[in-house]
Amino acid sequence: MTANFDEKHPCFSPSGHRAGAQVRSRRTCVELATPGVQGLRPYVPGKPIEELERELGVSNTLKLASNENPLGASPLALEAAAKAVAGLHLYPDDIGFRLRNKLAARFGISPDAVVLGSGSSDVIDMVTRAFLGPGRNAVFAEHSFAMYPIFTQAIGAQGKVAKALPPDHPVMPHGHDLQTLATAVDADTRVVFIANPNNPTGTWLKAAELKAFIAGLPEDVVVVLDEAYTEFVEEPEFPDGSRWLAEFPNLIVTRTFSKIFGLAGLRIGYGLANPELAAVVGRVRHPFNVNSIALAAAEAALDDEAFIRRSIQVNSAGLKQLASAFDEMGLRHIPSVGNFIAVDVGRSGPETYQALLREGVIVRPIANYDLPNHLRVTVGLPEENERFLGALKKVLGR
Ligand SMILES: *Cc1c(COP(=O)(O)O)cnc(C)c1O
Are the CB atoms for 252 and 155 separated by under 8 Å? Predict the structure, then answer.
């Protein structure tokens, strides 16, 4: 079938305007977009298993590319999700009454302090739409989460990248540098994004230094503290941003059910902020942004303490397994407290990634995060980590 886009969509072809149409411009579709969107490079997700199997005609693919929980979803959440299917003809509860109340009780805050999102990336997007726009900027660190620059640019604001700590830093190579972040903040800055721990590096900031950083920011700067991996962290000095909400009215802490709770496919996350800030963020929330199955599953997942405990154990054992294997192979890696680890393969990350695909193993190249020789691998089950390590040794010829 040959589609003739020119007929319906003149912008696809500068030469193909419909006869008789009022020609206001002969620009391409991209040229019709806003300046921010024109320069936008969309988010590149981890390669889906099905896609690789379609392309290579293989099966039994291992995906360690998107920081998904190798134990699957919380069993309690699955049970609740199955029950919720019976109500699919009804719109979801737009205000997410039960889940917000449950989260509020858990954190000792008001339900008005909780904003639900279709994944926490939805909440991050809401913050950018509420506080950013042309003439304003957002500050974030080098090697930080790819969604920050994407959402910022899409809304016409400027992203300001603060240099990370150097690769040879003795404690936190490639970690957030609070000094450069503070320096990057100027009169037009309205949002600062901090991922703790950071993705894709797995580096983290201690409670005392992070708190002092937030306290030192101008009050008209909204701080997004992205805690997508917080439940995995066992470091005693690791902060819990939810405890700082009363102190910092400009702070919003985001969390997700995609990672430790194993509900990435359902798309649900949340933001915690003082109620006034939460209300402003909520103004740009799409109606019914969280679906009814996600609401039910998330509520149940919060109670699944056994699953959380098991997930933490599997993860910390897997992190050790991967790190010590990298050490044995003489590969440098970034010390991580997340459910993933970035390893320097000493050659092109994207090429090594392609070679691993041919072994049926999907990891994540992170050249687009300015780490061209690193791969980010999600911690799997012990046998999955072993399989990845075997494939890596083969591909690197070690
Ligand atoms: C995975 C991730 C998120 C959240 O993703 P959602 O699925 O949208 O909740 C947010 N921030 C970081 C740094 C992440 O890695």
Answer: no
pLDDT one-digit tens code per residue, 187-207: 999 999 999 999 999 999 999
Q: What is the reported pLDDT for 23?
A: 67
Common-topology check for domains 49-71+306-396 and 76-302? no
- Residue 101 main-chain phi, psi, to 5 deg: -65, -40
Beta strand spans in the chain (E): 62-63, 114-117, 137-141, 158-162, 189-195, 222-226, 251-256, 269-273, 340-344, 361-362, 364-365, 374-378
Q: How far, in Å, is the centroid of ligand 1 from the Cα of 120? A: 6
Q: Where exactly are the structural domains of the chain?
A: 49-71+306-396, 76-302
Task: Give long-range contacts, CB 8 A cutoff, 24+ apart: 327-335.
Answer: 329/392, 329/393, 329/396, 329/398, 334/173, 334/174, 334/201, 334/202, 334/203, 334/374, 335/172, 335/173, 335/202, 335/203
Nearest-angstrom CA–CA distance, 377 and 282: 34
| 3-state percent breakdown (helix, strand, coil) of the chain, nearest 5 | 40, 15, 45
For residues 255-273, one letter each, b for 16 or more C-beta atoms within 10 angstroms of the residue's C-beta and e for the rest, the string is: bbbbbbbbbbebbbbbbbb
Please report the pLDDT score of residue 396 as a whole number. 97
Amino acid 306 reads A
Strand ranges across the sheet with 158-162 = 114-117, 269-273, 251-256, 222-226, 189-195, 137-141, 158-162
Residue nearest to atom 3 of ligand 1 (CA): 228
Atom of ligand 1 nearest to the CA of 121: 8
Domain spanning 76-302, CATH architecture: 3-Layer(aba) Sandwich (3.40)
Domain 49-71+306-396 in CATH 3.40.250.10? The answer is no
Residue of 124, 226, 229 with the most ligand 1 atoms within 8 Å of its CB, for mutation: 226
C-alpha 63 – ligand 1 centre gap (Å): 17
Q: At what angle do helices 349-358 and 49-56 cross, to 10 degrees?
A: 70
Decide: pTM greater than 0.90: yes
pLDDT above 80 for 326: yes
